[in-house]
Amino acid sequence: TCTFAAAALVQAPERAILMPSEGVLALHHLHRSYTSFADFQPELPGLLQQGALLSDCLTVTQALGILEPFTGEHIPPEAMQIQGPNYRESLVANGLLSRNRAVLVVLEQLYGSLEALGQQEIYVVEALTGFALWLRRQLGGERLLCSEFLEDAEHNFTDIPHQDLCALTFADASFDLVLCNELFEHVQDLELAFREIARVLRPGGRLVATCPLAFGQTEAIVKVRHNPATGEAEQMIEAEFHGDPVRPLAGSLVYRIPAWDVLDQLRGAGFLEVRMHHIASWKHGVLGSDLPGVLVIEARR
Asked: Taking the model in full, what pTM does it have?
Protein backbone atom coordinates (compact mmCIF):
# COMPACT_ATOMS: atom_id res chain seq x y z
CA THR A 1 0.00 0.00 0.00
CA CYS A 2 0.95 3.68 -0.13
CA THR A 3 0.39 4.46 3.57
CA PHE A 4 4.07 5.33 3.96
CA ALA A 5 3.83 7.89 1.16
CA ALA A 6 0.65 9.51 2.38
CA ALA A 7 1.77 9.70 6.02
CA ALA A 8 5.19 11.06 5.16
CA LEU A 9 3.76 13.65 2.81
CA VAL A 10 1.51 14.90 5.59
CA GLN A 11 4.47 15.02 8.00
CA ALA A 12 6.80 16.79 5.56
CA PRO A 13 4.69 19.40 3.75
CA GLU A 14 7.68 21.72 3.39
CA ARG A 15 9.36 19.17 1.10
CA ALA A 16 6.38 17.61 -0.67
CA ILE A 17 4.58 19.96 -3.03
CA LEU A 18 2.17 17.54 -4.69
CA MET A 19 0.98 14.00 -4.14
CA PRO A 20 2.77 11.59 -6.49
CA SER A 21 1.03 10.66 -9.73
CA GLU A 22 -0.68 7.29 -10.14
CA GLY A 23 2.28 6.06 -12.19
CA VAL A 24 4.77 7.04 -9.51
CA LEU A 25 2.64 5.52 -6.76
CA ALA A 26 2.71 2.23 -8.69
CA LEU A 27 6.49 2.25 -8.26
CA HIS A 28 6.48 2.74 -4.50
CA HIS A 29 7.32 -0.99 -4.31
CA LEU A 30 7.27 -3.21 -7.41
CA HIS A 31 8.77 -6.71 -7.18
CA ARG A 32 8.44 -9.27 -9.98
CA SER A 33 10.49 -12.31 -10.95
CA TYR A 34 11.17 -14.05 -14.26
CA THR A 35 12.69 -17.39 -15.24
CA SER A 36 13.55 -16.47 -18.84
CA PHE A 37 13.82 -13.63 -21.32
CA ALA A 38 10.62 -14.95 -22.92
CA ASP A 39 8.80 -14.15 -19.66
CA PHE A 40 10.38 -10.72 -19.35
CA GLN A 41 10.27 -9.50 -22.96
CA PRO A 42 6.49 -8.78 -23.15
CA GLU A 43 6.78 -6.50 -20.11
CA LEU A 44 9.88 -4.64 -21.32
CA PRO A 45 8.08 -1.85 -23.26
CA GLY A 46 5.95 -1.02 -20.23
CA LEU A 47 8.96 -1.07 -17.94
CA LEU A 48 10.84 1.30 -20.23
CA GLN A 49 7.85 3.64 -20.12
CA GLN A 50 7.94 3.49 -16.33
CA GLY A 51 11.65 4.32 -16.53
CA ALA A 52 10.60 7.76 -17.77
CA LEU A 53 9.14 8.35 -14.29
CA LEU A 54 12.47 7.98 -12.50
CA SER A 55 13.01 11.70 -11.99
CA ASP A 56 9.53 11.96 -10.43
CA CYS A 57 10.30 8.96 -8.20
CA LEU A 58 13.52 10.63 -7.12
CA THR A 59 11.58 13.78 -6.22
CA VAL A 60 9.40 11.73 -3.88
CA THR A 61 12.44 9.99 -2.39
CA GLN A 62 14.09 13.36 -1.83
CA ALA A 63 10.96 14.54 -0.03
CA LEU A 64 10.35 11.46 2.11
CA GLY A 65 13.66 9.68 2.55
CA ILE A 66 13.69 5.89 2.36
CA LEU A 67 12.97 2.85 4.50
CA GLU A 68 16.02 0.59 4.54
CA PRO A 69 15.17 -3.06 3.79
CA PHE A 70 15.63 -5.53 6.68
CA THR A 71 16.32 -2.90 9.35
CA GLY A 72 13.24 -0.76 8.65
CA GLU A 73 15.36 2.28 9.49
CA HIS A 74 14.00 5.53 8.08
CA ILE A 75 16.83 7.37 6.35
CA PRO A 76 15.89 11.05 6.00
CA PRO A 77 16.58 12.95 2.78
CA GLU A 78 19.48 14.88 4.28
CA ALA A 79 21.27 11.57 5.03
CA MET A 80 21.16 10.46 1.38
CA GLN A 81 23.54 11.32 -1.44
CA ILE A 82 22.71 11.42 -5.15
CA GLN A 83 25.88 11.32 -7.21
CA GLY A 84 24.58 11.13 -10.79
CA PRO A 85 21.65 10.24 -13.07
CA ASN A 86 22.17 6.45 -12.97
CA TYR A 87 20.30 5.91 -9.72
CA ARG A 88 21.22 2.21 -9.68
CA GLU A 89 24.74 3.35 -8.76
CA SER A 90 24.33 6.88 -7.44
CA LEU A 91 21.60 6.86 -4.77
CA VAL A 92 23.66 6.28 -1.60
CA ALA A 93 22.38 5.88 1.95
CA ASN A 94 24.09 4.17 4.91
CA GLY A 95 26.85 3.22 2.47
CA LEU A 96 24.44 1.22 0.30
CA LEU A 97 23.56 1.80 -3.37
CA SER A 98 20.19 1.15 -5.01
CA ARG A 99 21.42 -2.22 -6.29
CA ASN A 100 22.60 -3.17 -2.77
CA ARG A 101 19.19 -2.40 -1.33
CA ALA A 102 17.60 -4.46 -4.13
CA VAL A 103 19.71 -7.42 -2.96
CA LEU A 104 18.49 -6.81 0.59
CA VAL A 105 14.87 -6.83 -0.62
CA VAL A 106 15.45 -10.29 -2.14
CA LEU A 107 17.25 -11.55 0.97
CA GLU A 108 14.46 -10.28 3.22
CA GLN A 109 11.94 -12.16 1.10
CA LEU A 110 14.05 -15.34 1.31
CA TYR A 111 15.07 -15.27 4.99
CA GLY A 112 12.52 -13.02 6.69
CA SER A 113 14.76 -11.34 9.27
CA LEU A 114 18.34 -10.32 9.94
CA GLU A 115 18.40 -12.89 12.73
CA ALA A 116 17.55 -15.70 10.32
CA LEU A 117 20.04 -14.39 7.77
CA GLY A 118 22.70 -14.31 10.46
CA GLN A 119 22.27 -18.05 11.05
CA GLN A 120 23.50 -18.80 7.51
CA GLU A 121 27.09 -19.47 6.52
CA ILE A 122 27.64 -16.62 4.06
CA TYR A 123 30.40 -15.91 1.56
CA VAL A 124 30.53 -12.36 0.15
CA VAL A 125 32.72 -11.88 -2.91
CA GLU A 126 33.70 -8.35 -1.83
CA ALA A 127 35.27 -6.89 1.29
CA LEU A 128 35.98 -3.19 0.71
CA THR A 129 32.54 -1.95 -0.33
CA GLY A 130 29.79 -0.25 1.63
CA PHE A 131 27.69 -3.39 1.17
CA ALA A 132 30.32 -5.61 2.83
CA LEU A 133 30.74 -3.11 5.68
CA TRP A 134 26.95 -2.97 6.18
CA LEU A 135 26.73 -6.76 6.39
CA ARG A 136 29.56 -6.91 8.92
CA ARG A 137 27.84 -4.26 11.06
CA GLN A 138 24.52 -6.09 10.98
CA LEU A 139 25.65 -9.74 11.13
CA GLY A 140 29.09 -9.72 12.73
CA GLY A 141 31.92 -11.85 11.43
CA GLU A 142 31.28 -15.28 12.95
CA ARG A 143 29.44 -16.72 9.93
CA LEU A 144 30.33 -14.12 7.34
CA LEU A 145 33.40 -14.41 5.13
CA CYS A 146 34.41 -11.59 2.77
CA SER A 147 37.19 -11.69 0.16
CA GLU A 148 38.65 -9.79 -2.79
CA PHE A 149 40.51 -10.82 -5.94
CA LEU A 150 43.92 -9.38 -5.06
CA GLU A 151 45.95 -10.24 -8.16
CA ASP A 152 47.69 -7.03 -9.35
CA ALA A 153 46.35 -5.15 -6.31
CA GLU A 154 47.67 -1.60 -6.13
CA HIS A 155 47.85 -1.63 -2.33
CA ASN A 156 48.86 -4.17 0.30
CA PHE A 157 45.68 -5.76 1.65
CA THR A 158 47.20 -8.20 4.14
CA ASP A 159 44.03 -8.42 6.24
CA ILE A 160 41.73 -9.45 3.36
CA PRO A 161 41.56 -13.02 2.00
CA HIS A 162 42.34 -13.47 -1.70
CA GLN A 163 39.94 -15.61 -3.72
CA ASP A 164 39.62 -16.29 -7.43
CA LEU A 165 35.99 -17.00 -8.29
CA CYS A 166 37.18 -19.49 -10.94
CA ALA A 167 39.31 -21.41 -8.42
CA LEU A 168 37.84 -21.05 -4.94
CA THR A 169 39.87 -22.60 -2.14
CA PHE A 170 36.86 -23.61 -0.03
CA ALA A 171 35.74 -27.18 0.54
CA ASP A 172 32.62 -28.51 -1.15
CA ALA A 173 29.31 -27.51 0.49
CA SER A 174 30.86 -24.82 2.71
CA PHE A 175 28.16 -22.14 2.51
CA ASP A 176 24.42 -21.57 2.65
CA LEU A 177 24.57 -18.30 0.73
CA VAL A 178 26.96 -16.66 -1.74
CA LEU A 179 26.56 -12.94 -2.46
CA CYS A 180 28.29 -11.68 -5.58
CA ASN A 181 27.79 -8.09 -6.75
CA GLU A 182 29.14 -6.51 -9.94
CA LEU A 183 31.72 -9.22 -10.62
CA PHE A 184 30.39 -11.50 -13.36
CA GLU A 185 31.34 -8.97 -16.04
CA HIS A 186 35.00 -9.18 -14.94
CA VAL A 187 35.40 -12.97 -14.70
CA GLN A 188 37.54 -14.65 -17.37
CA ASP A 189 35.51 -17.90 -17.48
CA LEU A 190 32.00 -17.25 -16.20
CA GLU A 191 30.70 -20.81 -16.59
CA LEU A 192 33.64 -22.12 -14.56
CA ALA A 193 32.92 -19.51 -11.89
CA PHE A 194 29.30 -20.68 -11.73
CA ARG A 195 30.42 -24.29 -11.28
CA GLU A 196 32.73 -23.20 -8.46
CA ILE A 197 29.93 -21.30 -6.72
CA ALA A 198 27.63 -24.31 -7.07
CA ARG A 199 30.38 -26.55 -5.66
CA VAL A 200 30.88 -24.53 -2.46
CA LEU A 201 27.15 -24.16 -1.80
CA ARG A 202 25.29 -26.68 0.31
CA PRO A 203 22.18 -28.41 -1.08
CA GLY A 204 19.43 -25.81 -0.97
CA GLY A 205 21.98 -23.00 -0.72
CA ARG A 206 21.60 -19.87 -2.80
CA LEU A 207 23.51 -17.46 -4.96
CA VAL A 208 22.18 -13.89 -4.99
CA ALA A 209 23.95 -11.52 -7.35
CA THR A 210 23.86 -8.36 -9.40
CA CYS A 211 25.80 -7.39 -12.51
CA PRO A 212 25.42 -4.99 -15.41
CA LEU A 213 22.92 -6.74 -17.67
CA ALA A 214 22.08 -6.43 -21.35
CA PHE A 215 18.45 -6.80 -20.32
CA GLY A 216 17.00 -6.46 -23.80
CA GLN A 217 18.69 -9.54 -25.31
CA THR A 218 19.51 -13.18 -24.74
CA GLU A 219 23.24 -13.28 -25.48
CA ALA A 220 26.02 -11.47 -23.63
CA ILE A 221 27.96 -8.62 -25.20
CA VAL A 222 31.49 -10.04 -25.37
CA LYS A 223 34.20 -7.38 -25.11
CA VAL A 224 37.28 -9.49 -24.32
CA ARG A 225 37.98 -13.23 -24.58
CA HIS A 226 40.48 -15.01 -22.36
CA ASN A 227 42.81 -17.27 -24.33
CA PRO A 228 43.70 -20.18 -22.00
CA ALA A 229 46.56 -21.28 -24.27
CA THR A 230 48.42 -17.98 -24.00
CA GLY A 231 46.88 -16.65 -20.78
CA GLU A 232 46.23 -13.39 -22.62
CA ALA A 233 43.07 -11.31 -22.89
CA GLU A 234 42.06 -10.93 -26.54
CA GLN A 235 40.21 -7.70 -27.14
CA MET A 236 37.08 -7.98 -29.30
CA ILE A 237 35.90 -4.36 -29.13
CA GLU A 238 37.07 -1.23 -27.34
CA ALA A 239 38.37 -2.07 -23.87
CA GLU A 240 36.23 -1.04 -20.91
CA PHE A 241 37.30 -0.76 -17.28
CA HIS A 242 35.16 -0.34 -14.17
CA GLY A 243 36.11 1.26 -10.88
CA ASP A 244 37.74 -1.14 -8.44
CA PRO A 245 38.79 -0.39 -4.84
CA VAL A 246 41.60 -2.95 -5.17
CA ARG A 247 42.92 -1.32 -8.37
CA PRO A 248 41.76 2.31 -8.14
CA LEU A 249 44.15 3.52 -10.84
CA ALA A 250 43.93 0.73 -13.43
CA GLY A 251 40.35 -0.35 -12.79
CA SER A 252 38.99 -3.81 -13.59
CA LEU A 253 38.76 -5.08 -17.17
CA VAL A 254 35.26 -5.91 -18.47
CA TYR A 255 35.13 -9.23 -20.33
CA ARG A 256 31.42 -9.16 -21.09
CA ILE A 257 28.08 -7.58 -20.29
CA PRO A 258 25.96 -10.61 -19.30
CA ALA A 259 22.49 -11.07 -20.73
CA TRP A 260 19.56 -13.41 -20.07
CA ASP A 261 21.54 -16.48 -21.10
CA VAL A 262 23.23 -16.16 -17.72
CA LEU A 263 20.19 -18.02 -16.31
CA ASP A 264 20.81 -21.00 -18.60
CA GLN A 265 24.50 -20.93 -17.71
CA LEU A 266 23.58 -21.18 -14.03
CA ARG A 267 21.27 -24.11 -14.73
CA GLY A 268 24.08 -25.78 -16.64
CA ALA A 269 26.34 -25.32 -13.62
CA GLY A 270 23.98 -27.34 -11.43
CA PHE A 271 21.54 -24.81 -9.99
CA LEU A 272 18.00 -26.16 -9.72
CA GLU A 273 15.90 -22.99 -9.48
CA VAL A 274 17.06 -19.84 -11.24
CA ARG A 275 15.20 -16.54 -11.58
CA MET A 276 15.71 -12.85 -12.21
CA HIS A 277 14.06 -10.43 -9.80
CA HIS A 278 13.12 -6.92 -10.88
CA ILE A 279 12.70 -4.53 -7.96
CA ALA A 280 11.67 -0.89 -8.31
CA SER A 281 10.88 0.84 -5.03
CA TRP A 282 11.25 4.50 -4.18
CA LYS A 283 10.05 3.52 -0.71
CA HIS A 284 13.25 1.49 -0.27
CA GLY A 285 15.45 3.69 -2.45
CA VAL A 286 15.73 1.13 -5.27
CA LEU A 287 15.77 3.07 -8.52
CA GLY A 288 17.48 2.34 -11.82
CA SER A 289 18.50 3.99 -15.07
CA ASP A 290 16.68 2.87 -18.23
CA LEU A 291 14.58 0.44 -16.21
CA PRO A 292 12.76 1.88 -13.20
CA GLY A 293 14.56 -0.52 -10.85
CA VAL A 294 17.29 -3.13 -10.45
CA LEU A 295 17.63 -6.71 -11.71
CA VAL A 296 18.85 -9.28 -9.16
CA ILE A 297 19.84 -12.87 -9.97
CA GLU A 298 18.80 -15.65 -7.58
CA ALA A 299 19.83 -19.29 -8.05
CA ARG A 300 19.14 -22.21 -5.66
CA ARG A 301 21.46 -25.20 -5.49
From this structure: 0.91
